[in-house]
Amino acid sequence: MPEMPEVQGLVDFLRLKLLPPGAAPATIAQVEVLSFSVLKTADVPLEALIAEPLSGVERRGKFIVLTAGGVHLVMHLAKAGWLRWSDALKPGPLRPGKGPMALRVRFAAETEEKPGFDLTEAGTKKSLAVYVVKDPLDVPGIARLGPDALDVDHTAFAEIVTSHRGQIKGLLRDQSAIAGIGNAYSDEILHAAHLSPFANAAKLDPDEVTRLFEAMHAVLAHAIASASGRPAAELKDSKRKAMHVHARTGEACPVCGDTIREVSFADSSLQYCPTCQTGGKLLADRRTSKFLK
């Protein structure tokens, strides 16, 4: 799932393409919906975006927001969605089908082949979502967002953590508490903070809260710096290569050399290092909710 660093990388890339310094902003020429389930709104027509110069490209949590003529095209890539840029999309309409293509946006150009991007989604579970709204807060997911992970200060973060009655892994992924972090970076942050993903947030002591806060900022800031300036096509591989524990089950921890372990759930999994995070204990599958003895 694209998280804050990758979404910010996409936003930075789109800004360079669509709002280049010293040049006129791009204008949307066409929006094609290939998967009708992807469009979640109907009050504002897609046509309201056409022929209007872009005035903004920004990130809200894990949402991408393009603004043109006072109307906002809001995109959430969900678990398996992605944005593919092309400097020259071939002319002609696309046929809706069962493939990964969900939506295409073309921008105005003097040539027949126009620059633009496609939204794609792998797999059969379709969660990618697109909204056309007059206010980004009309999108329920944006309206529920908590403070951005890199904007929250230590005091506010400590209050969020100590008031949460649940596991710290779940809190980090809760967009209404802290925006921008998903499954992958929560694993990386907890590893850097030397905390178990099953630790009770409310029971963390002040030193542990401080370690977690510093790890969150360090991991995300480094990942955003790595993503900045990369073409959209390179962001996924860059993310995979940078992971220390996430999706590295069975490999050696780069910090201590212990074997990275996994806990599986119905539709996801987490990875952790026993030596770095749980005092050497192996975590049981959450269906048992106990440490393995």
TrEMBL record:
Record has DNA damage as a keyword: yes
Q: Which cofactors does the annotated protein need, by name?
A: Zn(2+)
Swiss-Prot/TrEMBL GO biological process terms: base-excision repair
Domain spans labelled Formamidopyrimidine-DNA glycosylase catalytic: 2-98
Which superkingdom is the protein from? Bacteria
Bilayer-crossing regions: none
Checking InterPro entries in the record gives: FPG_cat, FPG_N, H2TH_FPG, Ribosomal_uS13-like_H2TH, Znf_DNA_glyclase/AP_lyase, Znf_FPG/IleRS
GTP-binding: is it a keyword of this entry?
no
Q: Which keywords appear in this protein's UniProt record, sorted alphabetically?
A: DNA damage, DNA repair, DNA-binding, Glycosidase, Hydrolase, Lyase, Metal-binding, Multifunctional enzyme, Zinc, Zinc-finger
State any single GO MF term.
8-oxo-7,8-dihydroguanine DNA N-glycosylase activity
Q: Which reaction does it catalyse?
A: Hydrolysis of DNA containing ring-opened 7-methylguanine residues, releasing 2,6-diamino-4-hydroxy-5-(N-methyl)formamidopyrimidine
The family database entries (SMART domains) matched by this protein are listed as:
Fapy_DNA_glyco (SM00898), H2TH (SM01232)
Query: Which Gene3D superfamilies does its entry note?
Result: 1.10.8.50, MutM-like, N-terminal
Q: Where is the FPG-type domain?
A: 244-278
The family assignment reads:
Belongs to the FPG family.
Entries under PANTHER family matching the protein: FORMAMIDOPYRIMIDINE-DNA GLYCOSYLASE
Name used for this protein in its record: Formamidopyrimidine-DNA glycosylase
* Source organism (scientific name): Crystallibacter crystallopoietes
